């Protein structure tokens, strides 16, 4: 058996600029951090010769890669030329469709596992690139590149998306006290709604043809560097305010990013201590992230009784191998 572990991520600013429709015209950038919440994938020789058994939210048994219904698994198996006799199981700390980059984390985790199974060393860059190839180029998902890179590299980073398709990775190394204060000023609340991101992102991608939407996203890219500079200067409240400014722009990029109910929850949070916040991922549900100074957090909790607070920590670890058995 081989087990790989890949972190989910929290994105603060610049989401959407990692799509080719944007970065091919103007350099994109995203600032994100990996979390101590992960997806785990194990692979093991399957007893039935020539068949696959794949366990995720459902269980399927397939003869040959062409019969595999899970699209990411199918593409990954075909890439590695796996012929069968393999069992694949996945388990995650958080459900999919909640804005933490779980789909791309799954892809990176599976690729990492299959590289180990094939006896190959793989770099973080290779994992991220290959995950992008599967999701964006082969499966034509209307997504960007930030999640694959965040999952592969881990840590607190600015990812720059260059017009030639390359991605530059710039780690942020904050003083320990700033890092701790930043973490302690962030709160996650689960809205209870999972959503399919493809519709939201397809509309957002199409809307980038309009100059006003494109300009809004370019302004959000500027926020990435302002956010980075605020963190490096230890001016955390300024970073929280940038979250607010970014959310006001983001929810104008596509019609389903927010709803009147979600807007009401956000406004309640701002009235009760939060300096800023956003829905993570494409929007439409999932997790609300709020920046709220610690002395105001109890007031914020009390103001959002319908939402479940979700505790988390930052991690510097990217995708990694946590177990390799003698026979696999």
Structure characteristics:
alpha+beta, Ribosomal Protein S5, domain 2, Alpha-Beta Plaits, 2 domains, nine-stranded mixed sheet, four-stranded antiparallel sheet
Provide the fold topology.
Blueprint: E1 2-13, H1 20-23, E2 28-45, E3 51-55, E4 59-63, H2 71-80, E5 86-92, H3 102-117, H4 124-138, H5 146-153, E6 156-161, E7 167-171, H6 176-184, E8 186-190, H7 197-207, H8 211-232, H9 236-250, H10 260-271, E9 276-279, E10 287-291, H11 297-303, E11 308-310, E12 314-315, E13 320-324
Helix pairs in contact: 2-3, 3-4, 3-5, 4-5, 8-9
Verbal overview:
The chain is an alpha+beta fold. 39% of the residues lie in helices and 25% in strands. It contains 11 helices and 13 strands. The protein has helices at residues 20-23, 71-80, 102-117, 124-138, 146-153, 176-184, 197-207, 211-232, 236-250, 260-271, 297-303; strands at residues 2-13, 28-45, 51-55, 59-63, 86-92, 156-161, 167-171, 186-190, 276-279, 287-291, 308-310, 314-315, 320-324. A hairpin with a 3-residue loop joins strand 3 (51-55) and strand 4 (59-63). The chain is globular and about 60 Å long. The termini are close together.
